[in-house]
Design a protein that fits this description.
It contains nine helices and 17 strands. The strands form three sheets. Strands 1, 2, 3, 4, 5, 6, 12 and 17 form an eight-stranded mixed sheet that branches. Strands 9-8-10-7-11 form a five-stranded mixed sheet. The protein has 336 residues and is an alpha/beta fold.
């Protein structure tokens, strides 16, 4: 059985890999996380005052698989990936990569995303002819887009607002900034960090906030290739993430979960994915999150009991969860 706990302290300069374009929500979140938890700031930031323990360098990857390759090869020090959000659910590829790779989940960061309408300086909402963003983000902002389309139509200039799907949010901001001439009246839905990076301005902030159910909260994992040395302290309420495949007998899932219930260990999340192998394509792997440290006595006994019902088990990580504070609570406000 593989075990993982808290990663060693980060070095003074840390290379952090994320998937996407510079200015993406993942980059904004990782910069906030390392500033909040480790007092690290970006290498290109010369404005921060106060306690700074070191610097971080964001490294962008096109695909998640490339990020995991680089982490295993030692080309980056940490990975930072989204694992779930409240609108579209879990990211199946992340779970599959975690199960297949020699990496460890070492922290969780929970972020409430704030979508911004960003455009060239001097442009107003009534000037726009097109708004671009990732399809999921466009869906989250549908109420705002409907009102914006109506406002443009009401100008009486006989024009319609084009809504265009794009690869991601930061790439949309990059597209707008790339051609100030022909793209002057094109806007993107992206983060405030993307606007800053590409020389744009925020026309409207938090545009997805039509109701409490419109809020989008995303969980991110910090990943390390190094085997951690100790679990998070008990006061940090550590969680352990497992990947299990079960014996194909009646009641096995019930019996497996009972290993935790009988020891008063709370299972906070359970999800399954098909393994997709040739012989048994619908055989399932279960991802189980338990409120316990990997070295807790009750958890250790539960794992011994659990081995009676599983064909494989892997500990993907033992970690504490950190909530992004309100923007005013950060001594230096990064990110979204």
């Amino acid at each position: 059985m593989d075990s993982s706990t808290t990663a060693p302290p980060p070095p003074p300069t840390l290379r952090i890999g994320f998937q996407g374009t510079f200015g993406a929500y993942s980059e904004s979140a990782l910069v906030d996380f390392y500033h909040q938890v480790h007092q690290l700031v970006p290498v290109d930031d010369d404005t921060t005052t106060g306690s700074v323990r070191g610097r971080l360098q964001s490294v962008a990857f096109t695909e998640f698989s490339e990020l995991f390759d680089a982490l295993e090869a030692g080309d980056i020090d940490r990975g930072f990936v989204p694992v779930e959000n409240t609108r579209s659910g879990s990211f199946p590829e992340i779970h599959a990569q975690l199960r297949a790779r020699a990496v460890h989940v070492t922290a969780e960061y929970v972020v409430r995303e704030r979508h911004c309408l960003v455009a060239h300086p001097g442009v107003t909402l009534a000037d726009l002819v097109e708004i671009r963003s990732h399809p999921a983000v466009l869906d989250q902002c549908r109420g705002f887009l409907d009102r914006a389309s109506a406002a443009v139509a009401a100008t009486g200039e006989n024009k319609a607002l084009l809504i265009t799907q794009a690869m991601d949010t930061a790439a949309s901001a990059e597209y707008v900034a790339a051609d100030p001439g022909s793209h002057r009246y094109v806007a993107a839905i992206a983060s405030a960090e993307a606007a800053r990076r590409y020389g744009l301005v925020v026309l409207v902030n938090a545009i997805q906030v039509d109701s409490p159910t419109a809020q989008t909260t995303t969980r991110y994992f910090e990943l390390s290739a190094e085997r951690p040395t100790s679990p998070p302290p008990r006061h940090a309420s550590p969680k352990t993430l497992l990947a299990l495949t079960l014996k194909n007998t009646a009641g096995t899932l019930f019996k497996a979960l009972s290993c935790f219930a009988l020891r008063d260990l709370n299972v906070t999340k359970l999800e399954s994915r098909p393994l997709g192998n040739q012989l048994h394509p619908w055989e399932l792997v279960f991802y189980v999150t338990v409120e316990a440290a990997v070295n807790d006595a009750a958890f250790t006994r539960a794992i011994v009991n659990l081995e009676e019902y599983v064909t494989s088990i892997k500990v993907l990580g033992c970690f504490a969860s950190t909530q992004q504070p309100n923007r005013g609570d950060l001594s230096r406000v990064y990110g979204v």
